[in-house]
């Protein structure tokens, strides 16, 4: 039986694995990392090729190893994949891929008392039925799970009246590849985050006619992105997760940095929202003010939700729809730790969350003398 299974080899998962190893757990015999991707890179592996290293935000160094210099015109997906792959090899992290996790459940449901009667020296706060991680490559029995699956696998598609009647193409952020495929078309970009802004600027630069739809006015900010700002963001996101409410997106809390590039986009009219959508017609959107835009394509840059379907057997959800968290600890399941949920769903806090989860795991595994 393993001590820890880490699910996900993105920034938070690799950070957790690094600190598990640093604190004495042995790769393969004590812990493993399971990743659904065919190659290293986490969610960055799926970023569109036109997103270059120089145009990407939030590529942070992993603990213990700085990212080597790279050509800013190279696709960010390639740079991060290479960096993460080198990181895994340098620290001998036991990443198994591609492995799709299907479910996490107690090894013997409703039999916790069997383990409590003879816990074999396991600390009391994890003395219960081990967890079994069921995958498409077999099952892993473990005392603890660190879930680091993030959000990329669960795109959010909003619903509007008439959505099914639209005769053009619809795609989500994860389906975007390059602006060239939209040449000569009219594109509605829906969403108020960084991805939407980047799409609009790229499309406009290629001569594509665009319109921007946002539920609320875009929140551009001139606030300096310093450590105090980061801690404030995490505090505001954590207020919801500690109450068992679904987390807000980090971008929804931070706003958009008002860079010179964004200022130019606003001045050119590219980054000026037409407002909220009211409905869709066969030819395109109708905005809340009654105005229309004949569109060939709708690009939904509407964000992602936490990819947690495999945890459903553990029955973690509260009536409010969220999961009660205390930092990385899950209130309903002491054998589960979660990173990449809430404040650590972005690169802002992923390293810290990975370290925190590893330290909690080490503490829970430690047998009192």
Let me know the number of strands: 17
Beta-strand percentage range: 15-25%
Mean pLDDT: 87
Low-confidence stretches: 110-124
Query: Residue share in helices?
Result: 10-25%
Distance linking N and C termini? 22 Å
Q: Please write the string of helix (H) and strand (E) elements.
A: EHEHEEHEEEEHEEHHEHEEEEEEH
What sort of overall outline do the alpha carbons produce when their principal axes are compared?
Answer: globular
Give the helix/strand class.
alpha/beta
Number of helices: 8
Biggest sheet, open or closed, and with what strands and sense?
7 strands, mixed
Gyration radius from CA atoms, angstroms: 22 Å
Written description of the protein model:
It contains 8 helices and 17 strands. The chain has helices at 11-22, 76-90, 112-117, 194-205, 227-241, 250-254, 260-267, 350-365, and strands at residues 2-7, 31-34, 95-96, 101-106, 131-135, 138-147, 169-172, 186-190, 209-213, 220-221, 256-257, 277-281, 284-287, 297-300, 325-326, 329-330, 336-338. α4 (194-205) links the parallel β8 and β9. The protein starts with a strand and ends with a helix. Residues 110-124 have low confidence and may be disordered.
């Amino acid at each position: 039986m393993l001590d820890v299974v880490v699910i996900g080899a993105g920034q938070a998962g690799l950070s957790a694995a690094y600190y598990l190893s640093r604190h004495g757990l042995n790769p393969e015999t004590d812990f493993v990392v399971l990743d659904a991707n065919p190659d290293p890179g986490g969610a960055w592996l799926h970023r569109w090729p036109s997103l270059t290293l120089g145009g990407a935000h939030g590529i942070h160094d992993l603990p213990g190893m700085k990212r080597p210099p790279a050509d800013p015109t190279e696709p960010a997906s390639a740079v991060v994949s290479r960096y993460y792959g080198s990181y895994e090899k340098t620290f001998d992290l036991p990443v198994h891929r591609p492995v799709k996790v299907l479910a996490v459940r107690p090894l013997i449901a409703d039999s916790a008392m069997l383990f409590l009667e003879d816990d074999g020296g396991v600390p009391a706060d994890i003395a219960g039925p081990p967890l079994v991680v069921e995958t498409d490559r077999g099952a892993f029995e473990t005392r603890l799970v660190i879930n680091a699956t993030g959000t990329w696998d669960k795109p959010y598609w909003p619903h509007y009246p008439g959505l099914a009647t639209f005769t053009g193409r619809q795609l989500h952020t994860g389906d975007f590849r390059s602006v060239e495929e939209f040449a000569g078309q009219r594109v509605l970009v829906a969403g108020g985050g960084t991805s939407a802004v980047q799409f609009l600027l790229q499309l406009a630069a290629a001569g594509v006619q665009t319109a921007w739809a946002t539920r609320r006015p875009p929140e551009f900010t001139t606030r300096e992105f310093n450590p105090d700002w980061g801690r404030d963001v995490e505090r505001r996101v954590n207020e919801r997760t500690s109450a068992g409410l679904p987390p807000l997106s980090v971008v929804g809390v931070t706003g958009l940095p008002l860079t010179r590039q964004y200022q130019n986009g606003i001045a050119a009219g590219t980054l000026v929202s037409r407002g909220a959508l009211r409905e869709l017609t066969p030819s395109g959107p109708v905005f809340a003010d009654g105005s229309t835009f004949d569109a060939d394509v709708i690009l939904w840059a509407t964000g992602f939700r936490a990819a947690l379907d495999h945890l459903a057997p553990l029955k973690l959800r509260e009536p409010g729809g969220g999961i009660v968290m205390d930092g990385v600890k899950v209130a309903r399941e002491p054998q589960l730790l979660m990173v990449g949920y809430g404040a650590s769903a972005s690169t802002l806090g992923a390293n810290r969350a990975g370290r925190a989860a590893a330290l909690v795991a080490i503490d829970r595994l430690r047998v009192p003398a």
